[in-house]
Amino acid sequence: MSWDGFLLGLGLGLFTPFFFFFCYWLFVHSYMGFIPDFFKYLSIGKVMGPVISLCVFPNLGLFFLFINRYHIKSGKGIILATFLYAGLILYVRLVIENTGI
User: Fold this and answer.
1) Where are the domains of the chain?
2) Are 7 and 77 in contact (CB under 8 A)?
3) Per residue in 16-44, is it b (16+ CB within 10 Å) or e — as a string?
């Protein structure tokens, strides 16, 4: 298996923030349901955007790991996934939380 693949980087870049978001719920707010209650809690408190932003941060470590091992295509996939999450964060901040930027 080659570790230098665009789709591998994209998949890891999309999965890693979701994994950290799930771990945040599991270790801090597991007393409430994941889908209806936790998302409502974050959106009412207007902290869903910042929480997602913090969960995207580990992509930076993945990016540097792949770039330092000269897996450039995987690094490009991680960057694309990070930009997709940036679009999600903008949507959450402007539409769901309605706070503006």
Assistant:
1) 6-96
2) yes
3) bbeebbeebbeeeeeeeeeeeebeeebee
Note the pLDDT tens digit of each residue in 13-67.
999 999 999 999 999 999 999 988 999 999 888 999 999 999 999 999 999 999 9
The answer to whether 75 and 66 have CB atoms below 8 angstroms apart is: yes
Q: Rounded to two decimals, what is the model's pTM? A: 0.90
Provide the token pair at 74. Answer: 């995987």
Measured at the CA of 81, the angle between CA 6 and CA 36, to 5 degrees, comes to 135
CA angle 94/9/65 to nearest 5° reads: 105
Residue matched to tokens 């790991």: 65
